[in-house]
Predict the structure.
Amino acid sequence: MRTIKIFAERSDSSMAVRTCSLIVDTRLPDSALFSRAIGVCKTLLRRWADVDDSKILVTKITGGITNMLLKAEVEGENDDQLQPLTVRVFGPNTDAVIDRGRELQAIAFLSSAGFGAKLLGVFGNGMIQSYLVGRTLEPHDIAKPEFAKLIAVEVRRLHELEIPGSKEPQLWNDIYKFIEKGSTVVFEDSEKQKTYETISFENIREEVEEIKAISDSFKAPVVFAHNDLLSGNFMYNEEKGQLYIIDYEYGSHNYRGYDIANYLNEHAGFDCDYSLYPDKEKQFYFYRHYLHPEQPEMSIRNQDSFKEYERSSTVTFKSWRRQ
C-alpha cells in the first residue's frame, strides 16, 4: 500500500490519497469484475476492509464514454464512512489521448474545492470517488434558462480556481499529440487505408498553426478549463437544486473561451443539429450569469461593448487571413 501526496503551491494545502497497483479488468464476466472492484475498495478504504464481501453490492452505471463506471455500496448501511462509492475504471488505451497524471493531480484539488466527486483512492487503472446523487443532463436540458444559469455560475467558479501546472494553453500540445498519433495509423481494411492515405497531416498541422497564431493575437485569458462540457458532464441533484460538473479527464489550463464555445456548440447534441445553436439572446443570457453571477443585470449595459469587441475580432480575423 502506498500513499501519494499532491502538493499545492503552499505546503499546508497538501492532499494525500491511498494508492495500490491492483487492476480491474473490464473484460471479466460481471461476477469476477464486481469481485475485483470489491477488492479494490477494501484495499484502499480502511472502513471497507472489515465488511463482508456478501454485504457489498456492485452495479454498473450507465453514462461513461471513455471509462467503465461501477457503483459499490454496503447494503443496509448508514455509516458516513460507508457511503456508496463510484469505482471508475479507465477505458483501454485511453491514456493515448488522456494525460492521467495531469488528471489525477487536478482532481485532487478540484475535489477539495467541491467540484465533482471527491477523490478517495487510486488503483492501477482507475480511481475510487464518492458517489454523486443526481441525473446527467441531456442536450435539450442545457438550453433551458434554469440550467444555463446554473452552468454559467459553476463554469465561472471553476475558472476562478488556481490549479498547479503549466499556465500555457494545453490545447495546442494536445492537438499536436493527436496529429502525431493519427499520422501513424494503419488499417487492415484496404479501403479504409486508401481513404486514410488521402489525408495530409502536414496540411492539418499548417492549418492548426494558423489558428494558433490568430488565437495568440487575442491574448485571451487562460484558466483551468474542463475542455469537455457536453451535456452528460453536467449532473443535477433535483432535491438539492445543485448542479455538478463531472469528469475532468480532459481538464487543463486553456483559453477561457474554449469552455464557453464548447458549451454553446454542445446544444447541437450528438446529431450535430446546429439549428439548435443558441441565438444571441440566449448567448448573452449565459454571458450575463457567467460575468456577474450575483447581479447578472449588471452585464446588460456592457452588451453593446461586447458586440463591438465581437465586430473588431471578426475584422482582425479577416485582416489576418488576407495577409
Q: What stands out?
A: The longest strand covers residues 67-74. The chain is about 40% helix and 20% strand.
